[in-house]
Amino acid sequence: MKGKITEKIMYMLCALCITLTACKNDDAPINTPVKELSEEYYTGGQLGTAFNATPFAYEQPTPAVEASETMMLQFKYGEAFFENDFTTNTTGVRSGLGPVSLRSSCIDCHPGYGHGKRMERYRANDYGNGYLLVVTDENDNYVSQLTGMPQTQAVYPYLPPIDESGIHLEWKNHTDEYGNRFPDGETYSLIYPEVTIDREACNVPMPAFYKVRLEATIGFYGGGLIDAIDDDSIIAQYNREKERGFTLNDAKYLPENYIAEVDGTRHPGRYTYGLSRGTLQNGPGANAIWNITNVTRSDRRKHYITAAYATAMSQNANIQTTLGKTEQEIYNGLMSQDLPAELSDEDYIDFMVWHRGLAVPAARNLDDPTVKRGKEKFYEMGCIACHRPSWTTGADNYSGDPIVQGHLPRYPHQKIWPYSDFLQHRLDMVNNIRTGWCRTTPLWGRGLSETCTGAGDHLHDMRARNYNEAILWHGGDAKTAKEKYRALPKTDRDAVVKFLESI
Ligand code: HEC
Ligand code: HEC
CB 68: neighbour CB atoms within 10 A? Predict the structure, then answer.
């Protein structure tokens, strides 16, 4: 009890400091606690934690950024590329949107810097829709006529590859093998998405068979700290889990399958559910600023479109007439590999300073007796086999992309608390993610999701409406842990959730 009160006072003091400095210095966050806290509160280590539990908790710069005035300025400029819309203007600030795009800004999918929310329909412009459509063939390979992230928006006279009025999203009820009932009698409900796309809604020729899944966004504060973990540490974790007998996606750890940086160096995957990205600098955000908006830059002087799409558009009579161009001219324009750069290198560096500079919100309430009880159970049940509590970062000497190298904040030798092994598992759920392999989602900061984003949904397609449902969807190598959770008395199950909300 005493601990809880001291902690409350600590947060009140922090809040007071924020209010005081707010008068002097815009909205400068307070990243230094007034009292010494155990290391576990420093979710992002000393250099990467923000003591801020307000609705802006996901948006704070790390102490590493705050230590440099220049970087703070770059952070602010970079932030605008995330928060503000790109336009279809051909020159000026944030110009260059299109000819096709998924959204006109990052924040459209990552509202409140979070991970989107469960939606009842797929419309690019619905607030909080952080879904990507994953369209695959009978072998679960991406349909090659569409981009891996298919667009539903286009600048006139072009048509989007998929017309979203033909996308149908339905939520279905699921009854698990326990009849949706805990041993103590409490019941729950589980739902999952079923998505179809009408063939006529596709403006590219589609294969005879295709199926659709949804992938929701992941929060990305603390991405720089994840980047600072050595590859060797991740490979050691893979070897440990292998020894333990877990079923893992072995192909990902064959060096020839590592992911190449601009300069040819290679790294095992650690970002995205699919582990498709090995560093932050060649990561989902660095790519998204190009392929979500189709805004070109010096090292991406082409559009994110397929040849099938360019062919379909170039043969469209209305487009030919409206643009006054021939089929060949339209095709060549869309497929050009030497378009002018719309985003300057300087702007891109600012964007990456912001991206690598986002702090993790500090943990909260860890001294609360219920939270402590929940933590004890989380460890006992074996959740930590995959949700590995802490890591220590390496020297964090990034090299790989000459444009940003040497310009970014660094996080060497930090003890951080992401609660993930950064490996993939198969949790065997109905209508599962493409291939069934899904990276263990870091749990840090997620307890602030409702505060920061207005939504508290979980799992790769947001099928879980709360922590309880998220745990109940666990199968595969996580089934034993789930069964231990099911067997807990209700007060302990609630304590586990309270712990998850605190980290
Ligand atoms: C169309 C919606 C959409 C937009 C717009 C979008 N994202 Fe994402 N983002 C996603 C989805 C979905 C995922 C998860 C994908 C996966 O794992 O395959 C994701 C994942 C990420 C991740 C990976 C986090 C991790 O832990 O692996 C980062 C970083 C990220 N996005 C940054 C950005 C940035 C920066 C922008 C803007 C330049 C952006 N996103 C725009 C949908 C979006
Ligand atoms: C075998 C590995 C494994 C074990 C053991 C495991 N998890 Fe997970 N967990 C995962 C994976 C993989 C995901 C992502 C699944 C998805 O999104 O489809 C996940 C997702 C979650 C999420 C949702 C995160 C989010 O916001 O989307 C929560 C909460 C969670 N796990 C809690 C637990 C708890 C509590 C336990 C112990 C009872 C546990 N997990 C045991 C692998 C595991």
Answer: 15
